[in-house]
Design brief:
The longest helix has 44 residues. This protein is an all-alpha fold and 354 residues long. Helix content is 68%, strand content 0%. The protein folds into 2 domains: 244 residues, no CATH class; 72 residues, no CATH class.
Length: 354
Amino acid sequence: MLFHSFLLGGLSPNWSWLSRYGWMGVDLFFVLSGFLIGTQVLAPISQGRRLSFGDFYVRRAFRILPAYLAILAIYLCWPGFREAAGMEPWWKVLTFTMNLNIDYGRNSAFSHAWSLCVEEHFYWLFPLLAVVLLKRPATWKFVLLCAGVVLGGIALRAAIWTHGMETDPNMARNWFVEDIYYPTWNRLDGLLSGVALAAWKTFRPQVWLAARRYANLSLLGGILVMALSFWLFEDRTGMLGNTIGWPVLSVGLGLLVFAGADRDSLIGKRNVPLVGWLAAISYSLYLMHKSTYHLVQEQWGASLAGAGFLAFLAYGGSALFAGAALHYTVERPCLEFRVKIQRFRSKRSALDSI
């Protein structure tokens, strides 16, 4: 949210430091998603049970689609809602392919959905890949796959970056966003880090529990690796960050996620007020915040210009309100309906087994 303040011309000088590395929040999301979704997929397989693709995709559909389709409908039907004039064709946004060949210079409205496209591709492919690889599980297969993804990603991004600098060094076309930052095949490091944690927890639970004794050391290591990531990405569009920077960042975030994955660490032992609520509305907030910034600026931008902390509160508070409204009116009712469907499916399965 802070990073996307560039839509408003950036935060005031007193607050701009908050937004510089805010884009890394997406990579934290990828690591968390890889860990949580990876655990959901791998847990039944590690226990010798069959993965229910139907249950998995029903859960994902009810989690993602209702709020997403509601906001997409508003973007399509009300051009004034958009934070930018141009938008990719509706079918690309609807099919979660918008991130693969976006014309960012002309169609940047709702462009933050690129990360959801990456997430959907992960949902589509990972369960199938997991089932295939785990028919004959072997540690060396997983290590080889991880090495291939990391090294292949470094090589691919290096080639794209080199080609871009040779053909368009001034970025007349924003090839950094279109060819490196958005495409799914360049953003697998964070998901891989999370999946590696999930595989460790599900297939080596005793080793995982033993390692929890060092959760605070993992926290310290994560902070240090994140500091290294800040240095690597000092030039966000530079060669160093966009080659080795992504896997280093993902390792640092993975260490932080491991540290916070249970109650036995400094960042896991205490509840922080309002954080649970913020987590609950975070998906709706993600969908709404850029358009809300735009609407507030259109309505009160002149009055808020130079208002400092008041402007900070106005934009941020409005985004929180809009995200909460979407959550309580669309997202939460659909999640509650999902629970009813799951109960019905469970009862039917129990009756069929009699």
